[in-house]
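Reading a protein record of the kind used here takes only a little practice. An example makes this concrete, so a full record is given next.
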Amino acid sequence: MNKLEVDAYFELLESILTVDDGVLKPSCIFNMDETDLQLNNRPGHVLAEKGTKAVSTVTSTEKGETITVIACCNAESTFLPPACIMKGKNKKPEFEDGMAPGSKLFMSPKSAYITSDLFIEWLKTHFVPRKPAGRVLLLLDGHSTHCNSVEMLEYAKDNDITLLSMPSHTSHYLQPLDRTVFKSLKTHFYEQCRLWLKQNPGRRITRLSFGRLLNKAWGKAASAENAIAGFKATGVHPFNPSAIPDYAFTLELTKQISKSQNECTATVMVEEQEENTINISSANLEPVPNTFEVRQDISPAIAEPNSSVGQIVLNASPEMITRRPKKLFATASAAVIKKMSEQFPPRSDLPDLTPTRLKKIGNKKKSKRR
């Protein structure tokens, strides 16, 4: 996460929470988010004897339909009944069988995911009738369906609802429902699906069974402890920006530091290149024809025992540096190696293990086998 964006978010949150008569009450601080559940179970770990070859578990052969669950709670640990979104046009009463009291089901013809129209409908029919009197704060993630409708913004303003969107890619640390509720909800829901498949062998989970399974999982996940812990872990209530750990920003800081180091390195390299170009241009050297080729006899410095590649390069012409730097260094290295081989001739008592010699030996062995 970006620490600057998170600090700006907490500054804005503090200004919203501050009212004329003190701080906004926890019963007026809400968080709303969605999560998806599949009509299937997720097999967990199986306890078996060490060395067992065949370990089996009950699971469904189908992927399962995806259903979106809209959850909302306040810092006082009060949960609104869940609202669900199913794909389709025709809504049947039996789809809501077994759901928690006050739950609501929305139908979406294109997909089971939330849209701007469904979010406005949720505000009008599900949230506003249950909100306390006066101004309330509704924390949302940065999804486009939560903030791209003018009608929704005007409706929220008319009903004293302050909408605050979190910075992008920060909901895993700043959203209370993501921190403490949704993981528990999915764990209990898929556990109920596993038990259902075990009690009903040969059958698959359908929409008609979803309400009962969700009701059992919701009763365990939507607890007061989870709600209070979520708002506390995110620093919303009690207001505490330092609740976000420092390691949450480590990756972003590392990228910034690495980027600044790369920029500094690039600047130094450019300055060194300009300085070397000036030194080379000031030398009185023989010009090279405009053929983009490198001279074979680079410099008399090769004949000196203490000569180095740096001296060889500095004794070259400017055209050799600016036009063919890679070939220049390769030629210079080859020249140095040639000079060293002349000073230290190969010993006759050692076998010739050069790549060319080894290749010839290998070809001779292949020809003998044939």
Residues 280-329 have pLDDT under 50 and may be disordered. The radius of gyration is 36 Å. The longest helix spans residues 250-282. Residues 3-43+57-252 form a domain with the Nucleotidyltransferase; domain 5 fold (CATH 3.30.420.10).
